[in-house]
Design a protein that fits this description.
about 35% helix, elongated, alpha/beta, 6-stranded mixed sheet, 11 helices, 2 domains, Rossmann fold, Alpha-Beta Plaits
């Protein structure tokens, strides 16, 4: 729990309510965020995704008050961030780690000195305890053997591990990640994402991450908000958003990441053939659902497109099938069997 803050009775760690951010230059105004409302639960990984200029980083910076909302409010564990005085705000920021896109390391300081810096600023630990904490977090991120090196001698992945260690130095409850892997190659990105997941599970951190990559969301996040032009256009569980995207921006981002959301064109001429999208996730995905549905409904169908895999820790399946029936009663029986197995079936018109 954040020192001096009242823990909420529910699981909510961060609450953003009707937050807008307007930048003014003379008579010209730019609305970076428009009436944003969302919540982040304690111990979850919450993703914020959108194209460049959507307002992702601005929204992230509202949480630790690096940006102040023009209207609306941000609360952490029932405490309104905008109501804090300067001393309270400094205390809050020490409990919120920040991982930057381009590492933000001081090239003139060693790895140890970079990681120790927030501990020195906080001033709560004696020098010996600071050195011990630095050793702990460097070991945690797997670069204890790089302690005496300088950033220029490190790879991109190693520098980001230093950035993560620095963000963890003050035992944060919340970790904010602003495009933390976008400057890394794919192999290094996978390693850093796995490191963040391991740390989150071990320390029960609440992580809010900004990214433009649906692949990062798929690997990391429990829930996601999709931003477009300063507005949340879609949000929810990652499995729900991936399998049943509602907004065109979400569908485009998924398609660009290689996650197919398109529906094959319907065959012409036979009114008794139906295109149906079947989707399921969680425990249901471990069962042979398609064969069970065919057997229990007594109806055969053709699989036209689909995929199966995992979204973070959640297994999923999503298939487009073509079903030929003799009458509406057979169609209703098919849909009823799907419902009995927790498979969502949507007719494609």
């Amino acid at each position: 729990m954040l020192s001096g803050f009242v823990a909420s009775r529910d699981r909510t760690m961060i609450q953003i309510q009707n937050a807008s951010k307007v930048y003014a230059a003379g008579a010209i105004e730019f609305r970076a965020l428009n009436d944003i409302t969302l919540s982040v639960e304690r111990g979850e990984v919450f993703g914020i995704i959108g194209r460049s200029g959507a307002g992702k980083s601005t929204l992230l910076r509202l949480i630790n008050h690096l940006e102040q909302p023009t209207s609306g409010r941000v609360t952490i564990e029932n405490c309104e961030v905008g109501a804090l005085d300067s001393k309270q705000l400094r205390a809050l920021r020490q409990r919120i780690g920040f991982v930057f896109q381009h590492f933000n390391l001081l090239n003139s300081k060693s790895v140890t000195e970079n990681v120790r810096l927030p501990l020195q600023v906080a001033g709560r630990l004696a020098p010996r305890a600071q050195r011990q904490r630095v050793q702990e977090v460097l070991a945690l991120v797997g670069i204890a053997d790089q302690a005496d090196k300088y950033p220029a001698a490190l790879s991109g992945g190693q520098r980001q591990r230093v950035g993560i260690a620095r963000a963890l130095a003050n035992h944060p409850d919340i970790l904010l990640c602003d495009e933390a892997t976008s400057a890394l190659d794919p192999e290094t990105t996978a390693a850093v994402l796995q490191l963040l997941l391991d740390i989150q599970h071990r320390l029960n951190l609440t992580i809010v991450l900004v990214t433009h990559s649906m692949s990062v969301i798929r690997t990391m996040a429990d829930r996601v908000a999709v931003l477009d032009r300063g507005c949340v256009v879609e949000s929810g569980r990652v499995a729900e958003v991936f399998l049943r995207p509602r907004h065109a921006v979400t569908r485009a981002l998924l398609a660009e990441s290689g996650f197919d959301t398109s529906i094959p064109p319907a065959a012409a001429g036979d009114s008794l053939k139906h295109m149906i999208e079947l989707s399921y996730d969680g425990a249901a995905a471990a069962q042979p659902l398609l064969t069970r549905i065919a057997r229990e409904s007594g109806l055969d169908f053709s699989i036209l497109a689909g995929s199966a895999g995992r979204l973070k820790d959640t297994a999923f399946g999503r298939f487009t099938v073509e079903l030929a029936v003799q009458d509406e009663a057979q169609l209703k029986r098919f849909l009823s069997v799907c419902d009995a197995h927790d498979v969502r079936a949507e007719l494609q018109r």
